């Protein structure tokens, strides 16, 4: 009977009916899938996050506050924010330029450029840090010249910034490339035909179309910059109060058996991550609303 009923339906109705039938599951299967997903979320994400705050507050608010206002902790916070503030605009410029070139133009070496953008995803951050030590360290390729001119990169802030830039620069480009490719280049070409120059075309045509994807990439870049450990650990030298970021400061406190202080600083990182997650969710919502509005306007 079901097959006979389907034959009397129109083409679009039959397709929708078959689609619903193909995805219809029993309540048991639905609850099993949902329960599995929620169990993994609870065990591997929610419980560790709650444990961080419980351990941070185990010895009371006074101990918690003391750990956060410790001079070494404040120095680590300043350095973490400094590295993120410097790396973010550098990645912003590179990401937009790379995405624009890849999505809007055809040129030799295009696929090679895409491969280079993906390089930090395939190379361990520790290896990246070792590469910088090999190039800029005291015994590295440029080490003697840097020492001669009293320029310090490794075990100093510049090395931390370089490592942060390396591990974060794919995020904006990788967020914008598929978005700009899907949008095509007809609007930019129309603007140029109407007399707009390159800067005007980017500011009034390209940027409004990519603003939500760009903001999303910026949020991801900032989150990775603040939480990076491997590459920064190699190039920092772990100089307390000078070259320690927040993740490195947590490691030092934990290794010194200052567990309450370690979890307190870790909770600060967790709070920054939660704020970032909240902003990310808001951006996704705004982007979805903007997309629906554009579809309504088009129809």
UniProtKB/TrEMBL annotation:
Top-level taxon in the UniProt lineage: Bacteria
Stored InterPro entries: CysW_permease, MetI-like, MetI-like_sf, Sulph_transpt2
GO MF: ABC-type sulfate transporter activity
Cellular component, GO annotation: plasma membrane
Record-linked PROSITE patterns: ABC_TM1
Keywords: Cell inner membrane, Cell membrane, Membrane, Sulfate transport, Transmembrane, Transmembrane helix, Transport
Subcellular location: Cell inner membrane
Listed transmembrane segments: 31-54, 81-103, 115-141, 153-173, 259-279
Function: Part of the ABC transporter complex CysAWTP (TC 3.A.1.6.1) involved in sulfate/thiosulfate import. Probably responsible for the translocation of the substrate across the membrane.
Quaternary structure annotation from Swiss-Prot or TrEMBL: The complex is composed of two ATP-binding proteins (CysA), two transmembrane proteins (CysT and CysW) and a solute-binding protein (CysP).
PANTHER family: SULFATE TRANSPORT SYSTEM PERMEASE PROTEIN, SULFATE TRANSPORT SYSTEM PERMEASE PROTEIN CYSW
Designated name of the protein: Sulfate transport system permease protein CysW
Organism: Thauera linaloolentis (strain DSM 12138 / JCM 21573 / CCUG 41526 / CIP 105981 / IAM 15112 / NBRC 102519 / 47Lol)
Organism placement in taxonomy: Bacteria, Pseudomonadati, Pseudomonadota, Betaproteobacteria, Rhodocyclales
């Amino acid at each position: 009977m079901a097959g006979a009923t389907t034959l009397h339906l129109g083409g679009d109705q039959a397709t929708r009916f078959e689609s619903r039938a193909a995805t219809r599951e029993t309540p048991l299967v639905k609850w099993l899938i949902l329960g599995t997903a929620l169990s993994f979320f609870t065990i591997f994400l929610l419980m560790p996050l709650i444990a961080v705050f419980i351990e941070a507050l185990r010895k009371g608010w006074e101990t918690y506050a003391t750990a956060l206002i410790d001079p070494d902790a404040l120095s680590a916070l300043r350095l973490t924010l400094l590295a993120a503030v410097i790396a973010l605009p550098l990645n912003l410029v590179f990401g937009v330029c790379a995405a624009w070139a890849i999505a809007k133009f055809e040129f030799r070496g295009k696929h090679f450029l895409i491969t280079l953008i993906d390089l930090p995803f395939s190379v361990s951050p520790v290896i990246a840090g070792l590469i910088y030590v090999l190039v800029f360290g005291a015994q590295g390729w440029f080490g003697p010249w840097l020492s001669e001119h009293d320029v310090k990169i490794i075990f100093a802030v510049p090395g931390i910034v370089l490592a942060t830039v390396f591990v974060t620069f794919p995020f904006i480009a990788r967020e914008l490339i598929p978005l700009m490719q899907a949008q095509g280049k007809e609007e930019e070409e129309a603007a140029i035909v109407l007399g707009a120059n390159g800067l005007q075309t980017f500011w009034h045509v390209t940027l409004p179309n990519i603003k939500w994807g760009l903001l999303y990439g910026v949020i991801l870049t900032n989150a990775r910059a603040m939480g990076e450990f491997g590459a920064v650990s190699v190039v920092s030298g772990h100089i307390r109060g000078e070259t320690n970021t927040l993740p490195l400061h947590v490691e030092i406190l934990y290794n010194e058996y200052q567990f309450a202080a370690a979890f307190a600083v870790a909770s600060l990182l967790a709070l920054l991550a939660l704020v970032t997650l909240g902003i990310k969710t808001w951006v996704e919502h705004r982007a979805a609303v903007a997309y629906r509005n554009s579809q309504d306007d088009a129809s």
